[in-house]
Amino acid sequence: LNNLLIAQNEHLDLFWGGGVFLWESDVIIDNCVITNNETHSSGGGIAISNSNPTIINSIISDNYTDHNGGGVSIAYNSLPYFENCLIENNIITINGRGAGIYFEESSGTVNNCQILGNQNQGENTAGGGGVALWISEVFLNNSIINGNSTNLEGGGLYLRQSSEIIISNSEISENIALKGGGIYYFESTSLNITNSQILNND
Question: Mind listing the pLDDT tens digit for each residue in 139-156?
Fold first, then answer.
C-alpha cells in the first residue's frame, strides 16, 4: 500500500479494523494517510492480527474505536515495524486499552515516531492513552509520546501481564491519567529506559 488516503470508513459489526485489517499479512504501508475511520471493536485505523507489516512514513489520525487501539490494534503473535509515523488524535470511546497503539500477545518496534494527543475515554478498562502492552514486547526508539490522556492508568504508556518495553532516546511528556500520568506498569512487567526524558506528566 503506497501513497494512499484511507478515510471515512466504518465497520459497524464487532469486527476489527475501521480503515485496514491485516490477517496473516507482511504488507508494507508507505506514505499513507489513514484517518477518520471507525470500528465498534478494535483498531480504529488499523487492526493487525498474526501479521508482520512494515508501516513507514505514514499518518494514522482521528480514528475511533469502541475498544482496543484507537489508532492501531496489534494482536496474536504479530511483529509490526513502525518508522517515521505520526499517530495522533485517535480515540477509544467506551472501554479498552491503547488509544494510540495497543499490543496484545505480540512484539514490535516503534522507531522515530510521534504518538500525540490520543484519548482513552473509557471508564472501566481505560489503560493507556498513548501506548498499551498486554503480554507483549516492544522496542521504542527516538520517539515522542506527548499529550495523550486516559481516565484511568497510564496516560503515556501502560504495561500489564508480563509485558516488556525497552525505551531509548525518547520522550514521554505532558500525558495525563488518574494514575501514572507518564507510565503505569504492574503484574510482572519489565521497563528498561536509557537516554530518555520523562517529564511534565500529570
Answer: 999 999 999 999 999 999
